[in-house]
Amino acid sequence: MDHGVHTDPAALDELTEAARQERAEVGADGAVAGYRPGRTLRLGVELRRQLRRRRTQLVLGFVVVLPFILVLAFQIGQASPNRRSGGFVDLATASAPNFVVLALFVAGGFLLPTIVALFFGDTIASEASWSSLKYLLAIPVPRHRVLRQKAIASGLLSLLALVLLPVVSLVVGLLWYGAGDAISPTGDSIPFGKSLVVIVLATVFVVIQLAWVAGLALLLSVSTDAPLGAVGGTVLVAILSQILDQITALGSLRNYLPTHYAYAWMDLIATDIDWSQIAAGVLSAVIYGTVLTLLAARRFSTKDITS
After folding, report:
1. What pLDDT is stored for residue 271 in this prediction?
2. Residue 95 vs residues 84, 148, 180, 191, 267: alpha-carbon distances, Å
3. pLDDT (0 to 100) of residue 198
4. SS3 category, 189
5. In sequence order, what DSSP letters do the residues of 251-271 get, joined into one string?
């Protein structure tokens, strides 16, 4: 039956013979000659892609706006800038360093863990939900490189958000409350210059302490095709850990909760710093973060990619 398709048998024979004679060169690693895994999924490309996403822009925008919201709340509440005693909220308007401490305090319980969970939990799961992960691996990009590049990009975005909050808070605090001494609830007074060092150390501690959130979110991200499930699951674990940490009946068992040392950085706001809780918090976060990240890498390396 003639379907209207005409081929030249001689041309077909020539193409077949050319295909037989074609030989693709293979490198020492077994890949086609010229293929370089390091040229795939460049970090700069991934970062620009993530920065263009609306959720990234909204998160970073909210971090910038939060200090202004806090100032507005104090203005409406008619807080006195001359208070020299009380808790962190009472002392927030005493000076710019105290205002930064308040910003880290109010954001540390829910907002900052949620931001880290969002960046890490969405990174692989979103590709799976868009059905683009299998095509990304088929480019081909090695699995370990996909996970590494996306984890690094998520880490840099999380670091940007975590650093942006105290920096903007300090600028806003200087404009509204001045460069005074940092005052702790115990009555210790720290000069402005030294308080800047304290803020830097506190920010570094917060970044390290949230490593467990990043590891758990990454593990859930490679385990599910639903970004909301990975992010929400991580946030729920963080909330559950905070709830359990309030149950004194658990005694020393609370020391093993990942959020137990979340506010250990407050010990830095003192003339005589106790480093024991800070060191324990760093050790706990590093162990949790390392174990969870390794589990995520193992899970991703053996997972069947169907989407």
Report:
1. 84
2. 10, 41, 5, 11, 18
3. 95
4. strand
5. GGGGGGSTTTTTTGGGGGSSS
Token reading at 53: 């996403």
Nearest Cα to Cα of residue 127 among 41, 236, 59, 234: 41
Taking the C-alpha atoms of residue 49 and residue 32, their distance in angstroms, rounded to an integer, is 28
pLDDT band at 28 (very low <50, low <70, confident <90, very high): low
> How many CA atoms does the CB half-sphere of 289 hold within 13 Å?
20
**Dist CA 55 CA 24 (whole Å):** 44
The Cα-based distances of 276 to 210, 261, 280 in angstroms read: 18, 11, 6
Q: In sequence order, what DSSP letters do the residues of 114-183 get, joined into one string?
A: HHHHHHHHHHHHHHHHTT-HHHHHTTT--HHHHHHHHHHHHHHHHHHHHHHHHHHHHHHHHHHH-S--EE
CA distance 98 to 89: 9
Model confidence pTM above 0.70 = yes
- Phi/psi region, residue 160 (left: phi>0; alpha: psi -120 to 50; beta: rest), is alpha
Q: Which residue has the tokens 């758990």?
A: 216
State pLDDT tens for residues 205-237.
Answer: 999 999 999 999 999 999 999 999 999 999 999
Beta bridge partners, 182, equal 190
Q: pLDDT per residue over 98-131, tens digit each?
A: 999 999 999 999 999 999 999 999 999 999 998 8
Tokens in use for 208?
């390290």
Q: What's the pLDDT score for residue 79?
A: 55
Structure token pair of residue 243: 């709830």
